[in-house]
Every structure is written in C-alpha cells, then in structure tokens.
Amino acid sequence: SPAGPFRAGKYSILEGGSRIPFIVKWPGVINPGTTSKALLNQMDLGASLEQLLAPGKANSFRDSENVLPALLGKSAKGRDYHVINSTGKALAIRDGINGASAKMSKSPEGGSLFDLEKDPKELDNVASQHPDICEQMKAKLEEIRQRPETKADQEDLLPLDD
Question: Which residues does 20 contact at the CB level (< 8 Å), separation at least 6?
C-alpha cells in the first residue's frame, strides 16, 4: 500500500493522504540516524530555507513556517498544527492536544476526532468522548478559516456546523 500502515490515500484528509516520510541529509550538521515525529509541511521548506540563507529575514512565504530546528534535528517540535483539505472539500486540523497528536475533521459524513498516537489508522472516532477537544480544534480551524489571507481560498469548503 502506498500509504503504508495508514488509512486512505492521496487527496484524503486521513493520514494516508497527507503523512509521508521526509529524509534530510547534511553531513557534519545532521547526525545520521536521527529520527523525529515533528509535524511539518512541505510548504514549510520555503520559510525554513529562507532562514537558513538569510537568518532574521521576515517570512516571505504565505502558509509556511520556519521549522529549521526540527529539520536539522535540533528540536523535536515542528509546527503547532497542520490544516488538511481534500478534493471532496472536507477539512481537517492535525494538532498536538495534551502532548498527543489528534485530528479533528469535518467531512460530508460529519465530525471525527482521532488520537493519532493510539490509533494511527484512524479507525476509532473518539469525538463523543472528548467534546471539549473537538470544540477547541473546531474553534482553531474556524479561526484559521476566517483569516483574511485564507478566507478567499476556502470559500468552497464545507461549513464546520453540524
């Protein structure tokens, strides 16, 4: 399976559609064999490489975050959250809640919450057991959607209301 142990595939809001291995090699800078679970996005390469080449320069890349310390193996932390959308106009947010990875999604079938540490295949929807976490993540996703720079890009996505 191209998605490895994860469910679904490309163009899906599930992990199989967005999680991929990422290998960085830089002899003398990055220790060989170093692994990380830092959350990052390919879009983060813009801001990260910009900081590598022009330290202190203001971020020129929309939606990109400087995760250079994570890429260099100097930090276990990448970005705080990651927004995922699918071709079916569904939207999800992947976030670290209470130190664990969680994903809240709103799809045509309704809302879902997955504990990605315990359930990487996203088979056990725990939304009904954690309404507080669902509300936190839903609020964060709505706040992101309402930002002027992202609102126009996301007008065709499904509403977050049930």
Answer: none
Decide if 70 contacts 137 (C-beta within 8 A): no
CB distance 150 to 100 below 8 Å: no
Query: What is the reported pTM?
Result: 0.74
Alpha helices in 14-162 (DSSP H): 15-18, 44-53, 68-71, 131-146, 148-151
How much of the chain is helix, strand and coil, in % rounded to 5? Answer: 25, 15, 55
- Tell me how far apart the terminal alpha carbons of the chain are, to the nearest angstrom: 33
- 162 residues of the chain, pLDDT tens digit each: 788 888 888 888 888 888 888 888 999 999 888 888 888 888 899 999 999 999 999 989 888 999 999 999 899 899 988 888 877 677 888 887 655 566 766 654 557 888 888 898 889 989 888 888 888 888 888 888 787 765 555 555 555 544
